[in-house]
Amino acid sequence: MKPNLDLTGKVALVTGGGSGIGQGIARMFASLGASVAVADLDLSGAESTAHALEAEGHPALALEVDVQTADSVDAMVTRTIESLGGLDILVNSAGVGSESMIVDMLEEEWDWVLGVNLKGTFLCTRAAARWWIAQKRPGKIINLSSINETVPLAGEVHYCASKGGVMMFTRAAALELAPYRIHVNALAPGMIETPLTEEVTQIPELRRMHLKQVPFGRFGQPEDVARAAAFLASEWSDWVTGHTLFVDGGMHLVGEESYVWAMERAMRHDDSIPRVPLCWPPGALEDKAGDS
Fold first, then answer.
1. Which of 46, 63, 71, 221 could pair covalently with 18 via S-S, beta carbons 3.0-4.6 A apart?
2. What does pTM read for this prediction?
3. What is the CA radius of gyration of the chain?
4. Of 212, 247, 240, nearest to 140 (Cα)?
5. pLDDT value at residue 281
6. Are residues 159 and 99 both part of a single domain?
7. Long-range CB contacts (< 8 A, 24+ apart) of 122-127?
8. pLDDT per residue over 101-160, tens digit each?
9. How many other CB atoms are found less than 10 A from the CB of residue 24?
């Protein structure tokens, strides 16, 4: 029998499914026949996504979850299994980000980003893996990383550290869980137009700057990532584990210009903040000129 992208009979759990990339993946999986549990810290967002799927005739469940809390995560997995009859696919799509320079960053900000992006991935993976191993069932885990798992970005060291952690977590977990027939892979999106990236994509200067860094010349859409997720969830990826698939229009080949200073210039309407290349901070050009 030839492998295919049909997910009929599968149960998928998507965290961060109330909006953005997670919502796009939930919709894609439902369209391929899966029953989908949509989990989000924003319950109204999860309910909106789940109701839309149900209106199209797809089995769906809305769940509220705080991926930083083990009890909340364990309850999410239990309810998914009890309500939808099992679990076959876990998508760790819940994620957050912010812009702060190291010297200005609050400890709480660091903990928040690492807590959601990295600890949340661990807690959800642990909960699903425990059930799969106990039931002697295979499973597929798809972690949402970012091109910033390898491409550094000034002003977002916490985000880059969290996604670098997701990359290595994916590889180590894939190695550890392979004997149980549990696949663990990751997706690394580039600039995708979602609520998380709205600040960047809606400011003209930043939009133009980022488009120049995408070889395909456009921003990605949640559907672009959802198609890649469908591959990793399907039989087509049965010989793939521990892999990060970049979904970025080639942006990781070019690198990403740090936009923290451009954002400050645009939002403050302050042209005195200089236009500098890549990771040079404001004042670097003057310092360089003084050294010559």
1. 46
2. 0.88
3. 20
4. 240
5. 39
6. yes
7. 122/169, 123/67, 123/68, 123/69, 123/70, 123/73, 124/15, 124/67, 124/73, 124/76, 124/77, 124/90, 124/92, 125/90, 125/92, 125/169, 125/173, 125/184, 126/73, 127/70, 127/73, 127/74, 127/76, 127/77
8. 999 999 999 999 999 999 999 999 999 999 999 999 999 999 999 999 999 888 899 999
9. 24
Report whether 186 contacts 121 (CB < 8 A). no
The verdict on 98 and 228 lying in the same domain is yes
Q: Is residue 208 part of a domain?
A: no
Q: Residue 222: which region, alpha, beta or left (left: phi > 0; alpha: psi -120 to 50)? A: alpha
- One domain for residues 48 and 59: yes
- Considering the domain boundaries, does residue 164 fall inside one? yes
Same domain, 179 and 278: no
Report residue 287's pLDDT band, with 50, 70 and 90 as the boundaries.
very low
The domain total for the chain is 2
Residue 192 is given by DSSP the state B
Q: Which of 197-201, 232-236, 243-247, 282-286 has the lowest mean pLDDT?
A: 282-286
Q: What is the mean pLDDT of the segment spanning 3-16?
A: 92
Note whether 240 and 133 are same-domain residues.
yes
- Assess contact for 109 and 117: CB atoms under 8 A: no
Give the pLDDT confidence of 184-208 residue by residue, as tens digits.
999 999 989 887 777 777 777 778 8
Q: Is residue 111 part of a domain?
A: yes
The residues that are catalytic are 159
